[in-house]
Amino acid sequence: MLPVAVLAWLGVAADRQGQGPGARLLAQALRDCHEAGKTFAFVAVILDCLNDAAKAFYRRWDFEDVPGHPYWLFLSSKRLNAMIAAAS
Does the annotation mark 71 as catalytic? Predict the structure, then answer.
């Protein structure tokens, strides 16, 4: 088994979806994973989507399917590092 960072329980109230707090929450979570990766190496960030709308949201952040698990997605640590570097 490979070491991964797991994002869990990220969500925004239905009446706030599409207004930006979800993107800010995910961006901060990914920055936190990046910082943690400096101490504890991992190969990817993974998460379990609640539904198709959530899956579409995470795909906009370059998350990809985990084969054999239709609602699990991953973002490689290499891609995460590139995203953080581009944002700096």
Answer: no
